[in-house]
Amino acid sequence: MIAAHATPLKHHGLVDTRSVDEARDAIGRIFCPHFLSVRDRRADGFHAIHNAVEQSGYSVNFVAYGAEVEIDPGELSDFFLLQLPVHGAAHVRCGTRVTEAEAGRRASLLSPTLASRMVWRQNCEKLIVLMRRRVVEDFFETLTHRAAAPLEFEPGVDLTTPVGASVLSHARLLFEAAEGGAALPDSYRVMLRDGLLSLLLTGLENNRSAMLHAPAAAAGPLSVQKADDFIQTHAADTIAMADIAAAAGLPLRTLQDAYRKARGHTLSDGVQKARLQKLRELLLKPGPGLSVADAVLASGFGHLGRAASVYRTTYGESPSETLRRVRSA
């Protein structure tokens, strides 16, 4: 479960009000127009808080209302909404399906073409990832080379399953990256976004699951080599999985399958290996004043601690140890 002892995105506040009308209007401008009402008019605990950070193709949000509220946005139209309770529970209807979301156990995923309606229980607080419909549908087309049509997910996400736990872990990384601000490279944020989209599309039940789970078409070694060449050239840049698939001339799913069979690891692992090699090269031939943090960011990594951990596992020493050894030689 994501730690809730501190308010997420507390330095990115957009709404902080005890007025229902103000909350409805302000949050409606951030998400979409909606009906909002307090279930118990006698309750005095209503306190709307909405913190948010906009990213490329998505946003991360923390929302709380204090009191029990009913929210009716109808069809979201332009975005998908992954809602992860960090405290309390909510009753969520999306289309004809209903799910009971609960902190640490169950999340909800709303689809833009299905009418939604929710009751957030008293003191319910949620981390919310808003994903632009165009970005999700474009990613689906990259995976399959098929037109997306309306994508509709089962609204319940069981966080106690391996897939659900991975969704929660990816969400945690998205929020950490947003808290990191401009210090983190765009390449890292794009990698996180694509990782979540791939997980949602291939791991959660949706109306296109049969197509996504069908065996991928075979691909030749030339396509895999094209992917490797592109990765090596652009590892430190802001690249998306879609960019690699386009360079290889294949649907992303086909490339992912072929790459795994040819190289023995995933396409994401291939990008990480190329970035590790770049990091190693920078540390072995450091310029004046180069720091480990500088080298990590220049290699396309976005998280110093995780980069250092993978580096140590691969090379048997930490990045700082490599840098000290080279400079003392």
UniProtKB/TrEMBL annotation:
A family per Pfam: HTH_18
HTH araC/xylS-type domain segment(s): 225-325
SMART domains, per database record: HTH_ARAC (SM00342)
Coiled-coil residues: none
One GO MF term: sequence-specific DNA binding
PANTHER family according to UniProt: REGULATORY PROTEIN PCHR
Protein name: Transcriptional regulator EutR
Organism the protein comes from: Martelella mediterranea DSM 17316
